[in-house]
Amino acid sequence: MFQHVFAEMNDMLDEIIKRYPSAEGLKKQELLQKWNLLKRMSDSVIDEWLMFEEKMSQVREQEMRPAAKLEPEQEAVTALPELHLECFSRGQGYFKLQMYPQAIMQFSRVVNDYPDSALARYYLGLSHIHLEQNADAQEHLQRILHLNGSPRLKGLVCNALGCIEAKQANTKAAQMLFAQALQHDPTLTEPLYNMDACRRSSGPMQYGIS
Asked: Which stretches of the chain score pLDDT less than 50?
């Protein structure tokens, strides 16, 4: 049911790729506005998909337990209770506005109540990365790898950890982490881009949600 949406997004992106290099003036501004719209839509899709995947992961975990009392549909609603916290939604808002210190304050409140919230720790990790607080970022991100997070989220975590290593010029460690990211989720595009950027020692890193 999302095919028509992505078809439109791809058509818009193809237009940007074709016309932006030679565009000037108002046309260039128009294409840039389209690019910013696509970026916001992409971030929103990834954001919502991560939360969906986390719920699915929790449902699968519950189904493996012999004494599960809830049906999968009911479990999906209660799998991630932290999503209903006001501090979680505030944290997302601050993160999208690139107000990372405020986002850290809100998501820290979430993990105080739900220390095993992989999604909250992922937001914390990325917020610390944007503030160049790599040690704090690594602490949260590495903990996620030991939680029952979805393969996609774990792939994004390995990708983010690889970005930290790349920024510290630890190329070999970065490449290994990007490869691990693809092992968790082969559909991710960010690790492939980052591998190439790392080999060429040029270009910004891509995290998945920014």
From this structure: 1, 64, 66-78
- Max CA pair span of the chain: 65
Can you read off the two tokens belonging to residue 137? Answer: 């970022």
Nearest to 191 by CA among 158, 165, 168, 153: 158
SS in 3 state form for 126-184? Answer: HHHHHCCCHHHHHHHHHHHCCCCCCHHHHHHHHHHHHHHHHHCCCHHHHHHHHHHHHHH
Q: Which residue type does 157 have?
A: V
> Which single residue is written with the structure tokens 């850290």?
104
The pTM of the whole model exceeds 0.70 = no
Q: In whole angstroms, how far apart are CA 136 and each of 44, 50, 86, 186?
A: 25, 22, 24, 27
What is the b/e burial string over 108-121, where b = at least 16 CB atoms within 10 angstroms of the residue's CB? bbbbeebeebbbbb
Task: Look at residues 122, 186, 115, 118 and name the one whose alpha carbon lies nearest to residue 148.
Answer: 118
Per-residue pLDDT reduced to its tens digit, 145-160: 988 778 888 999 999 9
CA end-to-end distance (rounded Å), the chain: 26
pLDDT score recorded for residue 69: 42
Contacts of 139 (CB under 8 A, 6+ apart): none
